[in-house]
From TrEMBL:
Gene3D superfamilies, alphabetized: q2cbj1_9rhob like domain
Entry GO MF terms: ferrous iron binding; L-ascorbic acid binding; peptidyl-proline dioxygenase activity
Superkingdom per UniProt: Bacteria
Cofactor: L-ascorbate
Organism in which the protein naturally occurs: Algoriphagus alkaliphilus
Name recorded for this polypeptide: SM-20-related protein
Domain Fe2OG dioxygenase per the UniProt entry, residue ranges: 97-201
Any single GO BP term: cellular response to hypoxia
Keywords: Dioxygenase, Iron, Metal-binding, Oxidoreductase, Vitamin C
């Protein structure tokens, strides 16, 4: 874990993003997936909205995922275990990258077949407190032809962008600076399950 935390910090410091395969083991991943499926069965997912406050709207031509927010005061044991792992990352990033991260918020997400999320930044004027994005993918298996990649646009020093496509392979964790890396979810050919969250610089 110590080595992994150093690796994560170094990559965030140098490149603003990092991909960690097998961040959770198969057993933990399947348990989280089962929990998400159970919440889904209980009708606890809602179409995700874009915008903030009074501007909030469901616009499936921009994003087609459904989400269920985790309640920090009412986490299941599994969710609490995941938050504890993230807490280690939060501390490491504060120590090594001086990001001043103080809290975490997150939701389960489900992208139905054919859905996507157009290019966006997770930090913008209306949501200034998200500093680091953290995504854990939960699908049992994922192949190239199922598509649905996370496409990140990495800013280069010459002003161009490098495209990095990341398949939502189960157990894979992606971390990036919310205000630095525009990204999108390409249309998926399979139901796509994940937990997305943000470290914030407020409590
Ligand atoms: C988001 C998002 C990317 C992904 O929820 O803001 O960009 O790969 N998710 O699920
Ligand atoms: Mn995003």
């Amino acid at each position: 874990m110590e080595e992994q935390l150093d690796h994560i910090s170094a990559e965030i410091y140098q490149k603003s993003y990092v991909i960690v395969d097998n961040f959770v083991d198969k057993e933990f991943q399947s348990a989280l997936l089962a929990e998400q499926m159970q919440l889904l069965g209980q009708g606890k997912f809602r179409h995700a909205a874009v915008g903030k406050g009074g501007q909030k709207q469901v616009r499936t031509e921009i994003r087609g995922d459904e989400v269920h927010w985790m309640d920090a005061d009412d986490l299941s044991p599994l969710q609490a275990a995941y938050w504890e792992k993230l807490e280690e990352i939060r501390k490491a990033l504060n120590q090594n990258c001086f990001l001043g991260l103080r809290s975490f918020e997150g939701h389960f997400a489900r992208y139905p077949i054919g859905s996507f999320y157009k290019r966006h930044l997770d930090q913008f004027q209306a949501v200034p407190h998200r500093v680091v994005t953290v995504i854990l993918y939960l699908n049992d298996s994922w192949t190239q032809d199922e598509e649905g990649a996370l496409r990140m646009y990495i800013p280069q020093e010459d002003g161009s962008e490098l495209i990095e496509d990341v398949l939502p392979v189960g157990g894979r964790l992606v971390i990036f600076l919310s205000g630095e890396i525009p990204h999108e979810v390409l249309p998926t050919k399979k139901e796509r399950i994940s937990i997305t969250g943000w470290f914030r610089n407020i409590d």
